[in-house]
Amino acid sequence: MCLIVVGWRVDPDYPLVVAANRDEFYARPTAALARWPDAPQVIGGLDLQAGGTWLGISESGRFAAVTNVREPGMAQGPKSRGALTRSFLTGTLAAGDYASQIDGTQYSGFNLLLGDGETLVYCSNRDGPPRPLAPGIYGLSNHLLDSPWPKLLAARQRFAEALPRLPDQSAFFDLLADQTIVADENLPRTGVPIEWERLLSAIFVKSENYGTRASTVLMQAADGEITVHENSFGPHGQPLQSSLISTSA
């Protein structure tokens, strides 16, 4: 489970701003934020189990991020959702063209954000055809785009309040670190046990075996300069390392 908030062409100095948490089992092998060894133009973490990524950006401004759709009991698709981001980041197709050629039947439920510098596209194999997004602030967790889950509404509000403080990133990391558990009467009902609904209702998730593995703030400036800052975590939210990569305009 994950959370992504995106500001698309809201701030004139930073047309793309992203604050995201990647939630995953701590046992799943992962490489922290870096330039990819086989594609050094791409900056992002790597899922070492399936070879893809949850979020990344290239020096040319190609951006991709994916979340899964929470649908317990559904059969798993034969292909990894992380391959969707990897192939876009290393490819050349425009965002809309890439989204339109995806065979959604090959994947478990996904939400995908794709940016090529000109267009930001949302697509999902649970929510109709791909569509370009107008300038604005968007939130994505493990249902559909802008689903009114309490943590997503809170994250979008705090993201909007943090934008005027750029290039200071501290307010974005503060919102990503929020461990507030939503009251039971306000929890979404997604088919998982109530204990999991409570755990996953926080923006920053932590437990012994599962939780927020990475908190990432990504900024692309109007002149093309890219900055990606990631903090990674272990069991019970223990801080592990901080990584920062910037490109020249």
Key features of this structure:
six-stranded antiparallel sheet, 249 residues, 5 helices, alpha+beta, Penicillin V Acylase, Chain A, globular
Can you tell me about this structure?
The chain is α+β, with helices and mostly antiparallel strands. The protein has a single domain (about 1-245), classed as Penicillin V Acylase, Chain A, CATH 3.60.60. Helices cover about 15% and strands about 35% of the residues. It has helices spanning about 80-90, 95-100, 150-160, 170-175, 195-200, and strands at about 1-10, 15-25, 30-35, 40-45, 55-60, 65-70, 110-115, 120-125, 130, 135-140, 210-220, 225-235, 240-245. A 7-stranded antiparallel beta sheet has the order 3-4-5-6-7-8-9. The chain has a 6-stranded antiparallel beta sheet with strand order 10-1-2-11-12-13, covered by helices on one side. The protein starts with a strand and ends with a strand.
CATH homologous group name: Penicillin V Acylase, Chain A
- Low-confidence runs of at least 5 consecutive residues: none
Radius of gyration: 17 Å
Shape: globular
Q: What integer is the average pLDDT?
A: 95
Major sheet attributes: 7 strands, antiparallel
Query: Which fold name fills CATH's third level, the topology?
Result: Penicillin V Acylase, Chain A
CATH level-two architecture = 4-Layer Sandwich
Following the backbone from N to C, one meets helices and strands in this order, namely EEEEEEHHEEEEHHHEEE
DSSP helix fraction: 10-25%
% residues in beta strands: 35-45%
In total, the number of domains comes to 1
The total strand number stands at: 13
Total number of helical segments? 5
Top-tier CATH class: Alpha Beta
Q: What is the spatial order of strands in the main beta sheet?
A: 3-4-5-6-7-8-9
> Termini distance?
33 Å
